[in-house]
Specification:
Layout lengths: L2 H6 L3 E5 L5 E5 L3 H22 L6
Length: 57
């Protein structure tokens, strides 16, 4: 597993609902959030400019 796989992964927990259906619940880790925040420090303004035309509302 390389670093990108590690950062993008999250534990998957099955949740049994009252109707008997199993729903997958995924909870991301703090590492994904930390890497995203650090990456956005460097490229945030460029990404915001690029995505500006796609923002609605």
């Amino acid at each position: 597993m390389d670093l990108s796989d590690f950062v993008a992964s999250a534990p998957l927990t099955p949740l049994l609902k009252p109707d008997g259906v199993i729903h997958p619940i995924v909870v991301g880790t703090i590492w994904r959030r930390l890497v995203s925040k650090v990456a956005m420090i460097g490229v945030g303004k460029n990404v915001a400019q690029y995505l500006n035309d796609f923002q609605f509302g």
